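hiii so um. not sure if this is the right channel but i have a protein structure encoded as tokens and i wanna go backwards to a sequence. like what aa goes where. can anyone help
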């Protein structure tokens, strides 16, 4: 890994929801610029935004608010923190989103992200529809419909 592909930023002070959201959007724009500067054979780019003083509900809220915007730009945004209880994809006892420090992780979207965009336990049918439209724009060769997302091969 190099600083061209992974960036870790630490925001040690308390932060408001508006400031957290603005920071995430600014970092997404910077990430998109870094992605554009690499050829097609580039590695996956990631930005880790650590907010040790942030309340975990704030992290969850900002991630939820920005999800559709980020997906429409070809990015994924994940929320990680000590209280996260989201289950693993294949093992409900595994909690991959649990982390010692509250953070948002931004990365390029990949074809396999479809499963995260079609989680009926987490999203309404309307939101799945909107996320699926963005997915289809990013990966037109794998066009899916919201009804088929559960069965779509990864």
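sure thing!! here u go:
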């Amino acid at each position: 890994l190099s600083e061209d592909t992974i960036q870790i930023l630490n925001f040690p002070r308390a932060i408001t929801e508006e400031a957290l959201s603005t920071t995430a959007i600014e970092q997404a724009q910077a990430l998109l610029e870094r992605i554009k500067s690499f050829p097609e054979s580039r590695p996956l780019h990631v930005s880790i935004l650590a907010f040790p003083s942030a309340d975990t509900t704030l992290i969850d809220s900002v991630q939820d608010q920005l999800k559709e915007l980020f997906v429409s730009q070809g990015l994924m945004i994940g929320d990680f923190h000590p209280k996260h209880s989201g289950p693993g994809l294949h093992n409900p006892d595994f909690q991959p989103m649990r982390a010692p420090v509250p953070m948002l992780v931004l990365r390029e979207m990949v074809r396999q992200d479809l499963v995260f965009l079609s989680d009926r336990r987490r999203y309404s049918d309307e939101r799945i529809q909107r996320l699926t439209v963005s997915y289809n724009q990013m990966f037109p060769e794998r066009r899916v419909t919201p009804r088929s997302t559960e069965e779509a091969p990864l």
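oh and The longest helix spans residues 17-36.
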